[in-house]
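B., you asked whether I could sanity-check this one before it goes into the benchmark set. Here's the sequence:
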Amino acid sequence: AFAYGYHKRRLEEICWDFAQEFPGITMTTIRPCIVLGPHVENYISSSFTGFPVAPLLDGASIPWQFVGEDDAARALALAVKAGIGGAFNVVGAGVLTSCEMAKLRGVRTVGVPYRVAKTLNDFFWNRRLFPGRIAPSGILDYFRFPWVADGDKARDQLGFVPTQSSYELFCEILLREKARSRTDSEAPLFEKLCRIVAIARGH
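And here's what the prediction gave me:
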Protein backbone atom coordinates (compact mmCIF):
# COMPACT_ATOMS: atom_id res chain seq x y z
CA ALA A 1 0.00 0.00 0.00
CA PHE A 2 1.04 3.61 -0.54
CA ALA A 3 1.54 5.00 2.97
CA TYR A 4 0.84 8.61 1.93
CA GLY A 5 -2.58 7.76 0.49
CA TYR A 6 -3.43 5.45 3.39
CA HIS A 7 -2.56 8.11 5.95
CA LYS A 8 -4.71 10.70 4.16
CA ARG A 9 -7.68 8.34 4.34
CA ARG A 10 -7.05 7.58 8.03
CA LEU A 11 -6.79 11.28 8.86
CA GLU A 12 -10.14 11.93 7.22
CA GLU A 13 -11.68 9.02 9.11
CA ILE A 14 -10.36 10.48 12.37
CA CYS A 15 -11.87 13.84 11.46
CA TRP A 16 -15.28 12.33 10.79
CA ASP A 17 -15.15 10.31 14.01
CA PHE A 18 -14.50 13.59 15.81
CA ALA A 19 -17.43 15.24 13.98
CA GLN A 20 -19.78 12.48 15.11
CA GLU A 21 -18.62 12.83 18.70
CA PHE A 22 -19.05 16.60 18.62
CA PRO A 23 -22.00 17.30 16.27
CA GLY A 24 -21.98 21.00 17.10
CA ILE A 25 -18.73 21.45 15.18
CA THR A 26 -18.86 21.85 11.41
CA MET A 27 -16.38 19.49 9.76
CA THR A 28 -15.39 20.18 6.17
CA THR A 29 -12.80 18.28 4.16
CA ILE A 30 -11.41 19.36 0.82
CA ARG A 31 -10.21 16.64 -1.55
CA PRO A 32 -8.16 18.19 -4.33
CA CYS A 33 -6.93 16.17 -7.27
CA ILE A 34 -3.27 16.59 -8.28
CA VAL A 35 -2.30 20.23 -7.68
CA LEU A 36 -0.07 21.89 -10.29
CA GLY A 37 1.31 25.40 -10.52
CA PRO A 38 4.44 27.55 -10.59
CA HIS A 39 5.25 26.72 -6.95
CA VAL A 40 4.60 22.98 -7.19
CA GLU A 41 7.53 20.70 -7.85
CA ASN A 42 7.56 17.18 -6.47
CA TYR A 43 7.91 13.56 -7.52
CA ILE A 44 4.42 13.57 -9.04
CA SER A 45 4.87 16.66 -11.20
CA SER A 46 8.38 15.62 -12.22
CA SER A 47 7.13 12.17 -13.23
CA PHE A 48 5.08 13.76 -15.99
CA THR A 49 8.08 15.43 -17.62
CA GLY A 50 11.19 13.66 -16.29
CA PHE A 51 11.24 10.68 -18.65
CA PRO A 52 12.47 10.69 -22.26
CA VAL A 53 9.55 8.36 -23.02
CA ALA A 54 6.07 8.10 -21.52
CA PRO A 55 5.80 4.77 -19.65
CA LEU A 56 2.34 3.22 -19.56
CA LEU A 57 2.03 0.72 -16.72
CA ASP A 58 0.54 -2.47 -18.12
CA GLY A 59 -0.10 -0.45 -21.27
CA ALA A 60 -2.87 1.62 -19.64
CA SER A 61 -3.47 5.20 -20.81
CA ILE A 62 -5.42 6.52 -17.85
CA PRO A 63 -7.19 9.90 -17.47
CA TRP A 64 -5.64 12.56 -15.24
CA GLN A 65 -7.19 15.53 -13.45
CA PHE A 66 -5.27 18.61 -12.34
CA VAL A 67 -6.22 21.70 -10.36
CA GLY A 68 -4.22 24.90 -10.14
CA GLU A 69 -2.63 25.93 -6.86
CA ASP A 70 -4.54 29.24 -6.86
CA ASP A 71 -7.82 27.44 -7.54
CA ALA A 72 -7.13 24.99 -4.71
CA ALA A 73 -6.47 27.87 -2.31
CA ARG A 74 -9.65 29.63 -3.47
CA ALA A 75 -11.66 26.46 -2.85
CA LEU A 76 -10.41 26.42 0.75
CA ALA A 77 -11.43 30.05 1.21
CA LEU A 78 -14.88 29.35 -0.24
CA ALA A 79 -15.32 26.40 2.12
CA VAL A 80 -14.45 28.52 5.15
CA LYS A 81 -16.81 31.27 4.03
CA ALA A 82 -19.68 28.89 3.32
CA GLY A 83 -19.36 27.05 6.63
CA ILE A 84 -20.92 23.93 5.12
CA GLY A 85 -19.95 20.54 6.47
CA GLY A 86 -19.08 17.62 4.26
CA ALA A 87 -16.45 16.38 1.84
CA PHE A 88 -15.82 18.26 -1.40
CA ASN A 89 -13.80 17.19 -4.42
CA VAL A 90 -11.83 20.07 -5.94
CA VAL A 91 -10.83 19.42 -9.54
CA GLY A 92 -9.86 21.34 -12.64
CA ALA A 93 -11.88 21.31 -15.82
CA GLY A 94 -11.56 18.25 -18.05
CA VAL A 95 -9.04 15.42 -18.10
CA LEU A 96 -5.93 14.43 -20.05
CA THR A 97 -4.99 10.84 -20.79
CA SER A 98 -1.46 9.54 -20.49
CA CYS A 99 -1.24 9.25 -24.28
CA GLU A 100 -2.48 12.82 -24.75
CA MET A 101 0.19 14.09 -22.36
CA ALA A 102 2.85 12.13 -24.24
CA LYS A 103 1.69 13.70 -27.51
CA LEU A 104 1.90 17.20 -26.00
CA ARG A 105 5.44 16.42 -24.86
CA GLY A 106 6.38 15.02 -28.25
CA VAL A 107 7.56 11.68 -26.85
CA ARG A 108 6.50 8.13 -27.58
CA THR A 109 4.68 5.86 -25.17
CA VAL A 110 6.19 2.61 -23.92
CA GLY A 111 4.18 -0.13 -22.27
CA VAL A 112 5.91 -1.36 -19.11
CA PRO A 113 4.64 -4.35 -17.09
CA TYR A 114 3.79 -3.40 -13.54
CA ARG A 115 6.16 -6.00 -12.09
CA VAL A 116 9.07 -4.61 -14.11
CA ALA A 117 8.26 -1.05 -13.06
CA LYS A 118 7.98 -2.05 -9.41
CA THR A 119 11.28 -3.94 -9.46
CA LEU A 120 13.10 -0.95 -10.98
CA ASN A 121 11.36 1.51 -8.68
CA ASP A 122 12.20 -0.52 -5.57
CA PHE A 123 15.83 -0.69 -6.69
CA PHE A 124 16.05 3.09 -7.18
CA TRP A 125 14.11 3.95 -4.01
CA ASN A 126 15.98 1.61 -1.66
CA ARG A 127 19.30 3.07 -2.85
CA ARG A 128 18.01 6.65 -2.70
CA LEU A 129 18.82 7.19 -6.37
CA PHE A 130 17.33 10.12 -8.30
CA PRO A 131 15.94 12.08 -5.32
CA GLY A 132 12.83 14.07 -6.16
CA ARG A 133 11.94 11.72 -9.03
CA ILE A 134 11.34 8.42 -7.26
CA ALA A 135 8.78 7.62 -4.55
CA PRO A 136 7.86 4.35 -2.79
CA SER A 137 6.38 1.82 -5.21
CA GLY A 138 2.90 2.23 -3.76
CA ILE A 139 2.64 5.36 -5.94
CA LEU A 140 2.64 3.16 -9.04
CA ASP A 141 -1.04 2.35 -8.52
CA TYR A 142 -1.78 6.00 -9.25
CA PHE A 143 -0.20 5.51 -12.67
CA ARG A 144 -2.07 2.38 -13.72
CA PHE A 145 -5.60 2.94 -12.35
CA PRO A 146 -7.81 5.98 -13.09
CA TRP A 147 -8.51 8.44 -10.28
CA VAL A 148 -11.19 10.81 -11.56
CA ALA A 149 -13.40 12.75 -9.15
CA ASP A 150 -16.71 14.56 -9.61
CA GLY A 151 -16.49 18.25 -8.69
CA ASP A 152 -20.21 19.04 -9.00
CA LYS A 153 -20.80 19.19 -5.23
CA ALA A 154 -18.10 21.84 -4.74
CA ARG A 155 -19.56 23.82 -7.63
CA ASP A 156 -23.16 23.60 -6.43
CA GLN A 157 -22.64 24.13 -2.69
CA LEU A 158 -19.43 26.19 -2.49
CA GLY A 159 -19.64 28.02 -5.79
CA PHE A 160 -16.25 26.72 -6.84
CA VAL A 161 -15.54 26.86 -10.57
CA PRO A 162 -11.94 26.24 -11.69
CA THR A 163 -10.28 28.98 -13.71
CA GLN A 164 -7.84 26.60 -15.40
CA SER A 165 -8.31 23.29 -17.16
CA SER A 166 -6.19 20.17 -16.75
CA TYR A 167 -4.88 20.82 -20.27
CA GLU A 168 -3.79 24.38 -19.46
CA LEU A 169 -2.07 23.34 -16.25
CA PHE A 170 -0.14 20.55 -17.93
CA CYS A 171 0.99 22.89 -20.70
CA GLU A 172 2.25 25.30 -18.04
CA ILE A 173 4.57 22.74 -16.48
CA LEU A 174 5.81 21.77 -19.94
CA LEU A 175 6.73 25.38 -20.66
CA ARG A 176 8.46 25.61 -17.28
CA GLU A 177 10.54 22.52 -17.96
CA LYS A 178 11.54 23.73 -21.42
CA ALA A 179 12.58 27.11 -20.06
CA ARG A 180 14.66 25.62 -17.27
CA SER A 181 18.34 25.12 -17.99
CA ARG A 182 19.45 21.54 -17.51
CA THR A 183 21.74 21.54 -14.49
CA ASP A 184 20.80 18.18 -13.01
CA SER A 185 23.86 15.99 -13.46
CA GLU A 186 21.78 12.86 -12.78
CA ALA A 187 19.36 13.46 -15.65
CA PRO A 188 21.50 11.89 -18.42
CA LEU A 189 21.95 8.64 -16.45
CA PHE A 190 18.27 8.53 -15.60
CA GLU A 191 17.32 8.99 -19.26
CA LYS A 192 19.77 6.28 -20.36
CA LEU A 193 18.14 3.81 -17.97
CA CYS A 194 14.72 4.68 -19.37
CA ARG A 195 15.97 4.14 -22.91
CA ILE A 196 17.44 0.75 -21.93
CA VAL A 197 13.99 -0.32 -20.68
CA ALA A 198 12.41 0.93 -23.92
CA ILE A 199 14.91 -0.99 -26.06
CA ALA A 200 14.37 -4.14 -23.99
CA ARG A 201 10.66 -3.83 -24.68
CA GLY A 202 11.33 -3.63 -28.42
CA HIS A 203 10.35 0.04 -28.88
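One thing to flag: The first strand starts at residue 28 and ends at 32. Otherwise nothing jumped out at me.
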